[in-house]
Amino acid sequence: MADNTRKTQLGAMAKPVIWGAIVIVLAVTFATVPFVTGNLSFMFYMMLWMTMATAFNFVAGLAGYMPFGYVAFYGVGAYATGILYKSAGLPIIVALIGAGAAGIVVALIMAPTLRLRGVYFGIVSLAMALAAKLIISLLPPNITGGSMGLILSSANNPMAAYYTMFIVLMLALATGTWLFFSRTGTALRAIRDDQEAAEVVGVNVVRTRLKAWVAAAVFPAFAGGIEAWYTNAIDLESSFNLLVTAKSIVYAMAGGLGYLVGPIVGSGLLYGVDHLIWQQFPTLNLLLLGIVIVVLILAMPRGIVGAFAQRFSRLRKYIP
Amino acid sequence: MNELLLQGLVNGIILGMIYALIGLGLNVVFGVLRVVNFAHGEFIILGAYAAYFLQRLLGLSPFLAMPLIFAGFGVLGYLMYFVLIRRLAKSDDPEHASLLVMFGVSIALGALMLLFFEADSRSLAYSFDPPFLMFGSVIIPTTKLVALGVVLAITAVLAFFLYRTLPGKALRAIIMNRDAVQIVGVDLEQLSAMTLGLGLGLAGVTGVLVAMIFPAFSPFIGQDYTLIGFIVIVLGGLGHPVGAIVGGIIFGLTEQTAQVYMNGSIASLMGFLLLIGVILVRPTGIFGREAMK
C-alpha cells in the first residue's frame, strides 16, 4: 500500500521533472547560440515560433478554442511597438511592454466572443483580426506610417532583440508550466471536456477561461513586437498575414495540442524543415504548408506527441 | 442625398444576393456534412479563372461556361469527399478538424493558383449593350442586373431542389436530424459526397458571376470571399439555407449603404461590426438552430 502511494507520487512527479529538464536544455541551447554559431536568425525564429505555438496551445489545447484570428495579437503587438517607439519616442523596451499591454487589451475586447462555441468562435475570431487590421489602416498615417509601414532602424540591435525573445520564450514556458500543473490547468481541462459539469462542480468558467485567453494573447503580442524590432520593419500585410495563424496552428498541432512539449517538438521539427528546405521557394513553401496541414489532420490528428502517447500508453504519465 | 442612398440600397440588394449565393454554398455543405469549407473563396476564384480560360481558349461566353463549371466543380467536390472528408468522421472533433483541413486546402489551392496563373490580376472581357440602365435616377450596370437574374434563377432552382425533390428533402432531413435519416435508409455517404459536389459547383458558378461583376481577380483574394461567406452564414445562422439569403442581403445592404456615407474601409469595418454585434446578442445567428426545428 505504502509502496503504491510512493509509486503514484513518483509518477506524478515524473512529468514536472522531465519538463524541467527539457526547459533547461532549451534555455542553455538558446542562451549559448550567439556565441557558437553565426546563424542568429534561424534560432531567433525558432524561439519565436516556439513562443507562438506554445501560447496557441493555451487556448487550443487547454481551453478547446480555435482562434483563427490569432494573428490579431501578433499584428497589434507589432504596431503597438512601432507606434510607441517611433511616433511616441519611447525607449524600445518600454514600447515592447506596451505591446504586451496592447495584447491584453485586445484579448479583453475579444473576451465576449468566448461565449461562442466551436466553429462560431473560430470564424468570429477571424473577423475580429481583420477588423483590427482595418482599424489600424484607418488610423492617421503619421502615426502608423500608412501603407508604407514603419521603419525602426534606429533601434537596430539584433543581439538585444534575440535575448529579449529568449526572455519571452522562457516566460511563455513558465506560464505554460503554471497553466498545466496548477489547479487552473485542471479547471481548464474540465471546462474543455464538459463545461456544464465543470460549472456544477464550482469552477468559475468565465474567469478560468479568461486567464488562458489573456495568457495566449500576451505572448504573440510580445513576439510581434520583438520581430518588428529584429527586422526593423512593420507593415500591415506582413503583420496581419494569416500565415502567422496558420504556422502557429500547424506547429502546435504537429507536435500535439494539450501537451506542454507538443508545440516545442512541432516548431522545432517543422520550422527546421521549413527553413532548411523550403525557404528558397516561397510559393512551393506555401503549397507544402497547405498540404502538410491536410496530411497532418488526416493522418495524425493528435500530433507527434499525441500519437506517441497513444502508441506507448504506458509512457503517457511521463509525457508533460 | 436620397438618390445616393437609393443607389446604395439597390447596390446592396444586388451584391447582397451574390453574397447570399456564397453563403448558400457554404451553408448547404456545413448543414449536411458539418464541414466548414474554409477554401470556399479559393474555389470561387478558381471558378473565375475557369471562366476566364474557357473564354480565352475556347471562346465560350460566361453563360455557357456556367453549367460546364458547375458540372466540373461538382465532380471535384464529389471526389474530394472521399479523399479528404470521409476520414474526418473518426476524428475527436470533426468540426474543428474539417475547418483545419479546409484551411490547409485553401492555402495549398491559393499557392497552386499563384504557381499556374501568376500574381497578375485578370479580368473577364465581357460587356453588354447598353452597358448601363437608368431607373429614374438610379444607374445600374447591365452586368449587375444580369448577374442578379442569374442568382435569382439559381436560388429558385436550389429552393425547388431542396424543398420539392426527394434528394433535396433528404438533404434537409440530414440537416435536421442525422441519426434518424440513417434509420430511414438514406445512403448518407453518397448524399454527403453529392452535397460537397453541390457546394463546390455553387462556388464555381459564383466565381463566374464574381468575375463578371468585380473588375479583377487574382489568386490572393479567395480569402476575402471566404470571409464574406462566413459573415453571411454566421449572421443568418450556420447550416440554414434561408439564413444565408437573409444574412447576405443584410450584409450587402449594410456594406453598400455605409459606402454612401463613409469611405470603403470603414464600410467593410461596418460589416465586421455588424457580425460581431449580432453574434453577441444572438450567438446562433438570426436563424439559429432552434429556429430550424
TrEMBL record, chain A:
Pfam families attached to this UniProt entry: BPD_transp_2
Keyword tags: Cell membrane, Membrane, Transmembrane, Transmembrane helix
Topology with respect to the bilayer: Multi-pass membrane protein
InterPro entries: ABC_transp_permease, LivM-like
TM annotation in the entry: 16-36, 91-111, 118-140, 160-181, 249-272, 284-309
Principal cellular location given in the protein's record: membrane
Protein name: Branched-chain amino acid ABC transporter permease
Compartments reported by the entry: Cell membrane
CDD domains to which the protein is assigned, alphabetical: TM_PBP1_LivM_like
From TrEMBL, chain B:
Xref: InterPro entries: ABC_transp_permease, BCAA_transport_permease
Membrane disposition: Multi-pass membrane protein
Transmembrane segments annotated in the record for this chain: 12-33, 40-58, 64-85, 97-117, 137-163, 198-221, 227-253, 260-281
Main location: membrane
Keyword field: Amino-acid transport, Cell membrane, Membrane, Transmembrane, Transmembrane helix, Transport
Keyword Chaperone (UniProt): no
Coiled coil, from the record: none
Family classification: Belongs to the binding-protein-dependent transport system permease family. LivHM subfamily.
The protein, known as: Branched-chain amino acid ABC transporter permease
Annotated source species: Roseovarius pelagicus
